[in-house]
Amino acid sequence: MQAVILAGGRGERLRPLTDTVPKPMVKIGETPFLLLLLNLLKKHDLRKILLCVGYKADVIKDFFGDGSEYGLSIEYSVEPEFLGTAGALKHAADLLEEEFLLLNGDTYIDLDYKNFIIFAKRMNKVCTMLVYSDPNNDLQFNLKIDPKNMVEDYSKIPKSSFNATDAGIYFVKKGILNYIRTQKSSLEPDVFLDLISAKQLAGFPTKTRFYDIGNMDRLHLFSEEFEKKY
User: What is the CATH number of the domain that holds 57?
Assistant: First the structure.
């Protein structure tokens, strides 16, 4: 299955680290985060990769090339300007398969991807997102999922009625492009709210902790946890 990674962001909250490299190439120890993510996908037999790149795209392209050195097959979609997460996906339309995994290029979670894919195919929605649902977590909930595993509400502002967190990994049908109406737009929450209205956004609950490197604190946390485990 094709894995599409959104790796075009500048990473303003990681400056000055991102003054010279794009956010996914920030190093964890001596290794770029994106290489750790790609090695994780390869471990789960996901070797066909599409990287949606933008800011300092050549840094990523020069490092990975066609992916053969890393046991992968890598293609690139290069944004001419920052388009947002949904805009980047729309820009890559000609390279997308009919079904694919979509991952944020700053998020890491080691779980059974095969089970996630099987669940998503069974739900048969335009998009199924991985949702972190451990009530004893240190993360704020930003969505509500019902007993039938359908996402009922989504917001960047936490609400008392919410019971899960978007973990940044999605099983997507190419039909999602029909919900992206402008050249520059975000999946969160623009497209997701439209999918909820159409009853086309499902959620796969997990208690496996995910990590992201969106800011300095979370970068340091992931670095510490990764060093402990690996």
Answer: 3.90.550.10
| pTM greater than 0.90 | yes
Q: What is the pLDDT of residues 26-83, one digit of tens each?
A: 999 889 999 999 999 999 999 999 999 999 999 999 999 999 999 999 999 999 988 9
Residue from 95, 98, 123 nearest 174 by CA: 98
Quickly list DSSP for 124-189: T-SEEEEEE--TT-SS---EEE-TTSBEEEE-SS--TT--BEEEEEEEEEGGGGGG--SSS--III
DSSP 12: G
| Structural domain harbouring 28 | 2-229
**What token pair was written down for 52?**
């949606």
Structurally, how many domains does the chain consist of?
Answer: 1
